[in-house]
Amino acid sequence: MTNMFNRKLIILLACLLVMLLLPPVSQALDESYLISTMTRVLIFAMAAISLDLIVGYGAMVSFGHAAFVGLGAYVAAILSFHFNDASGLFGLSISYQGTDQLLPILIIAMLVAALVAVLTGMISLRTHGIHFIMITLAFAQMLFFLFVSLGYYGGEDGLPMLGRNQIPLIDTGSDSAFYYLCLAFLIAFIVFGRRLVQSHFGRVLLGCKHNEKRMRALGFNTYWYRLSAYVIAAMGAAIAGVLLANKTEYVDPGLFSWHLSGELLVMIILGGLGSIYGAVIGAITYLLLEQIFSAYTEHWQVILGPVLIIVVIFARRGIYGMLQKKWSQNA
Amino acid sequence: MPDIVLSTENLCKNYAGLQANYNLNLELQRGEIHALIGPNGAGKSTVVAQLSGELEPTSGQIYFENNDITHLAVFERARAGVSRSFQVSSVFDEITVLDNLALALQAHQRHSYRFWSSVKRDDELNKQATELGQQFGLEQHLDVYAGTLGHGEKRQLEVGMTLAGNPQVLLLDEPMAGIGSGGSKVLTEMLDGLRGRYTILLVEHDMDAVFALADRISVLVYGEIIASGSVDEIRHDAAVQRAYLGESA
Amino acid sequence: MLLLIEQVLNGLQLGFMLFLLSAGLTLVFGVMNLINLAHGSFYMVGAYVAATVMAATGSFLLALLVALASAALCGLLVEIIVLRHLYNRDHLDQVLATFGLILFFNEGTRMIWGRQPLFMQIPDYLSATVEIIPAAPYPLYRLVIIAVGLLVAIGLFVLIKHTRLGMRIRAGASNRDMIAVLGVNIRWLYSLVFALGTMLAGFAGAMAAPLFAVESGMGESILIPVFVVIVIGGIGSIKGALLGALLVGLVDTLIRAFLPTVLFWLFATSSANSISASLASMGIYLLMAGILAFKPRGLFPA
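Output (structure tokens, whole complex):
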């Protein structure tokens, strides 16, 4: 038991060390695109963790999670747009002081995502199974079309951001500083995620996943617990969205697309459902596979597709599940 | 004047024209073990589902402590003190026995919107859960995963979880089903130990258990209560013998 | 008034197109309990094959036949190689695997046919217009789609209600164990149902090919409205699929046609145009959310 615990700790520390050393090493090797790639991986890992919270721990299979990533990203881009041209949002002449700052933007993005999640979740959570999958997809599509039609904010073409948001003491314009910022956020996500799933709330969520009827009979108002989880997940995705907009300094309605929602699902299933580390591993694996295959051929999806199918058929508990099985056999 | 805890008034339930329950007038007196028996398909589970709130009655009322609870949600009834167990054991296999009991207790705390502190290290909760486990003889198994328990022990846990939060009424849906004679003996003793502390509606097929435990019995046939009375009265009721006991004997 | 009739016909045409796709998908949901994101890929296969055969031979009927056969064959292969292993799995596993299938098919068509969209000619004998009402010419081809959709719908109802195969399909949808007891070979029944569904999808693709650009990814843009249809109709119900498809087809078409006028009339501002464009695209999703809010299992839950 302690043996296994130690091993896990050593692996975690090793991973952390690799992550910390990545910017100087890749700069030394003159491969600084690695920093950009890994920043993207870190951000998607956050989005995947937030999705796993409802899919893996709450059995709410949302096929519209990208919508909250998109909302976060658009909050950052739209506020930055108004900051720079000093025009009013919805024609209101309010002051935009501070909207170039990352922290207030994160809070606004989380509030917006929470509001949308409450409204859509209240309807979606009345349904179950395939219906829940489809209704979350439908709500995401609605947002997709909404942002396509917002011609003022670029419509289908998207909206560029003029420079990254600021944060005191850190030069977010530097790619390695931004990388470390994202790494810090990811670590915070992991810590918060692990606390959450082991908390009183987390156990109620687990109960709802396995037997909601029983939970109601015990006296839990399961609807509000599930809705709360849905809202928390949406806020997590919005944070990832803000960071993603800052990373690429550009947003477009594709962020709301069902394709991105699907990819997020693929990441958490690939990594292993219902584990925070699994979500991180899934995000890393998926994005790196994408990178590797696309280096060989422009038709990399024709390889990735069957690989995913093989993973589903043969590796039923995802990569993290397989690793855990192996560790517990060796220990 | 008997002290009635839970009662129904002309309770009816139709499924697409099919009468599952018809004009049920059931009264549970405080502290009694009241058995509800009847052949398969008589509508016993429908009664439990309506009392616990999973099914909305077609017509009629349900009263608990003189309050109309006909339209209360399942969780509201559970928190008010009407607690049910399931015919198919519905314990949470992935967590330990102690954690199952703790989860049941959590339902009766003010709320569980606590996102940061570890539930495993909630000493007060664990203490209460341990005490609950000791009440019905699962103290040996507190640290094992519920999924590894035997059938009988699972059923003990299932019933034990309904005791969390000190409910007034227990609705036990066939607790003896599928656990063998050894298991049902242990469970019979456990339920006997609860006598007087709770008001129990016992839906059961196992006649040995029913006659050993029940203070009063109601007999449900084709959705209607054809007889209600003490164990002796039911044993000698001609209609019951014709409709029910006669057919199984 | 003329405009209204024309738009209703357009709505029906879209509705029957959606029905061809949703019939197969809803059967697969209902009978095999399988969620198949890749259903649109067979629509795409149908469209590509039809466009290719038409370009090579000039025969529309031959193009249709080959498209139907290839979609059915693709469906059969996919069922045997991949989906057969996933019937008893979690919906999530099915989502992931069929997502993989989408990637494969989309990229595969790009490899075979390139990135440029294909276009397909309507045969001369179908390219006429007819005046159903005087002075309002309407394209014959769209009427043909409506007629064909209606025929397929009738055919499916006869198949499901009055044939042995239909009885087995219904039995499979309501009670899987019973059908095994009856001694039906479930494995082949499932393959058959799946291939039938993909054949209908391929048919829809072939019929749609002359109307839209044939390109990689075309399956997904129509698949999502198809999901809306079967969720509104009630999963597993052919009747629900038909009514859902017509409802979605009409609502979508009519909102797009008339909302700008209505909004302009109400608000008389130039922004009415852009608002109505977004509202029109969101229309069917609002419809679905509204229906599910009151009937969480759709209009005709199976």
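Chain B has a mean pLDDT of 90.
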